[in-house]
Design brief:
Blueprint (H helix, E strand, L loop, with lengths): L8 H17 L10 H7 L11 H4 L19 E5 L5 H10 L4 E6 L2 H14 L4 E5 L12 E7 L8 H11 E10 L9 H5 L1 H4 L2
Parallel strand pairs: 1-2, 1-4, 2-3, 4-5
Helix pairs in contact: 1-5
Length: 200
């Protein structure tokens, strides 16, 4: 099912980048959702959250807890789709241990800079951050055991492209652990064209 709405996707991506760049630079400002460590704690994040530096977690903007779907296993290779400042990536890296790996991908350079700084602060050698978009993942087929994502897929109009890419990069038998926003009623055509409603 392809997306049939009249929206300027380039403009939408630009506005999303602005929104999350602002959150990375000024995490204390009001955001549409709760943010920061207290919010992640309220969501029931695992104990590994305590090891995530404030550099990352102050800009945490997740909408739920993808780890509530299960802990990651030692040695697994994980993709964090829309990693933002890296909170989920760094929780995952602690879970999979040095035998595993976690790759965070995001389209917002300012968030990626925070994520890299936090990973450096922790001294983790099993984490990589990549700038890119969910509809065109720069990874080989079957690269990951698990894909985690938190509050990102709802921001992307072409969900079919996103899920096609996620299934492509998952190994056979791999799993998705997605926390996201859903709606229960159809959105009007006017609402679907409203950029502000898409930007989170």
């Amino acid at each position: 099912m392809s997306v049939d709405i009249e929206i300027d996707v380039g403009l939408l991506k630009s506005e999303i980048k602005k929104t999350y760049a602002s959150l990375s630079k000024e995490p204390e400002k009001d955001f549409v959702f709760p943010t920061g460590r207290p919010w992640a704690e309220d969501l029931g994040y695992p104990p590994e959250l305590g090891g995530v530096p404030e550099t990352a977690v102050e800009s945490f903007a997740g909408v739920a807890n993808p780890f509530s779907l299960g802990r990651l296993e030692l040695g697994e290779h994980v993709l964090d789709l829309g990693c933002g400042a890296g909170t989920d990536t760094l929780v995952a890296a602690q879970m999979v241990g040095p035998e595993g790996s976690v790759t965070g991908i995001d389209m917002t350079p300012e968030m990626l800079a925070k994520a890299r700084a936090a990973a450096d602060e922790l001294g983790l050698g099993n984490v990589t951050f990549v700038e890119g978009e969910a509809e065109r993942l720069p990874f080989a087929d079957g690269s990951f055991d698990v894909v985690i994502s938190n509050g990102v897929i709802d921001l992307i109009p072409d969900k079919e492209a996103v899920f096609s890419e996620l299934y492509r990069v998952l190994r056979p038998g791999g799993r998705l652990q997605v926390a996201d926003v859903t709606i229960q009623r159809p959105v009007s055509a006017e609402g679907r064209r409203n950029i502000d409603l898409w930007t989170g």
